[in-house]
Amino acid sequence: MKYWACDEDRQKVNAAFYRTAFASNEGRPHWADQLVACEFKVEKSRDGAPQDPFDDVPGGVGGVSPATSNRGKKNRGKIISYAELIFAVQQRIAVFMLLVLGRKCRFIRWDRSGYVVTHAFDYYVQWQFFVSVLWRMSQCSDTRLGLDPTAHRLFPGDADYIRMTEAAKSQASDIDHKERLLSDDEVPKGSFVFKYVREAFFESVKDKHWPRYRVEVPDGAKTRTFLIGKPTFQAKGLAGRGTRGYVALDCDAKDERFVWLKDAWRAHYLLVDREGDILARLQKAKVPKVPTLICHGDIGEQVTYTPQRWEEKNSEPFLYPTPDAMSPLSNVAGPPSSSGQKRKFNADREKGDMSPPKGLSELPFRPECPLRLHKHYRLVVEEVALPLREFKFGRQLISVVKDCVVAHYNAYEKLSLLHRDVSGGNVLIYPRLVKTADGRFKIAFTGILADWEMAKETTITGPRQPVRTGTWQYMSVALLTGNKDVEVCDELESFLYVLLYYATRYLTSPFNDITIANYLDEFFDKFGWLDGRWVCGDKKKNTIASGDFEIADSGMLRFNSNMDDVLADLLSWFKAHHVVTRYEAEAAASRSAAPTPQTSTSDLKSDAALAPVRPRTVPRMSLPRRKSTKLDGPSNEDREMARCASDHTAVVVLLEDAERAIGWSLNDRAGDRIPSDWRTDSTDDLDSTYISATETKNKKLKASGSLPLSPA
Q: Can you give the pTM of this predicted structure?
């Protein structure tokens, strides 16, 4: 079978159901047109191993569980990847799949919360039931089969399809986004488009196999429409928010206007604010360096069904009801199992979607349910920004991060708002046309702090959803070590890790590329397992404790530039904060401990009488004694540096001073320091596919350490 061009991984599902108008006989899996995917397997492999990705468990919770055999895990990973690809290529609410295993088969329904799967049944014996299901599916509308009715497919010849093709063509008025002073003839006379924006839109429509859509986005009581092609950004993994970002064409704008459209399945809980509502508040408060809201809204009543199915099968007070063993339709329930060994977790570096702790926090939201409830949501903002990896030199990296700290400071001071997901994927570059003091114009790179969907006011106490928020690789040591609320110091520590990651990966340093890749992997992707929860990895924890960036063989990370001083100063502040916080916690625990009862003299005499001291059997000698482990109190210098770790102004001043310092090179960028053929350690847990922090540009990694996709 031939693969389909829009699939970089060249996956080959065995068959699929199509509408008659889209059916093809060329032997390719047309991922854009499939309604129901079909996978065929013999019941057992040549070595006798069962091929079924699931096990029927009579009397168990839901009656079906994920197979634990290596063959079952592998096949489950394969069908998950098929469903993930269909979600990526099409505009979907759910995906249906038929899995045939010799004489048996299963039907599966996938959504962004998990999946519902039937018992395996013999379609030869139960042919009437099997045929009935297939006939009913053939009579279903596209919406019933999981397609999103607010996304309208475009085809060659459609006016909007042609409009997209024309908009992708370069124009003489387009401006290069390189930082520079503009000559008089470069200054735009009216509206203009940066070249990188139009090029990104061209990349989204150049693949004729990738479908184009006109999608609807709520705008108060009205509805606006936008034209999209292939997503510029796409979060890895099937379960979760499934975030996709598009350079979109605004259908309602008088002039040609490109915007950024975000399509996601947001956490749907009563007290969780929508990102657009947060952006509107930021704009009203005149918080700088944040995205400019155009419109946003929930997409109808599109919510994930799998958690509802779990509730139906596990309704209180009978938490684990006995399933109807005679019914061929069932579903799986129960939290996924996980290993206690230390493993690697790999999430999408450019805005991760699957942090290790998610779904495991002890919160009052039916914690026994392994499923998150999601609702479909779209957001449109004006700025089509560049990812942080596009910075050109170290000083520019400092400047962009500084702008985002300023945005964070203003949100905190004006609205008591914490971002709670400061990460490399959310610190963006936005080129602006700026007028200088002498009346000239220049292109300047500025920073934008994006993705405010997890933001929360400090005045709100208690969890609002049954997950820990944040991107694992950039979270503070304190957040990854214990249960605590996010504070300013945690967010500022995350900015340190953003600087560290991008400086290490893209700037010149005296270490070879393999050493750099291994260091980033160990610092950002490793984690530990303690008392039933994922905790901070040793490299990050030891770095904060020691105050040194030890990279390998007792060597210290260095760039031989001003970046060394910036990172060292910031790290010293967070080390001091760690020392002060630990000391104060132990002092508080000591004060709260109950005093030891005093022993009276009479008791001593009585004890001596009961246990008389025996005469020495060896000569007396002086023995070395272990010194007291009582911590000395932090010094005044420690306390002052610890204060800086929670002070936006201190961090901004430090970054501004570094930005203005002399000695920066404009040629300190080395390109990507992670070799294209570098690989992290991995195992065969294929329940999820995702990208690590140290993912190479050319190949996708599959590694253990993720939360498995949860069944209902």
A: 0.84
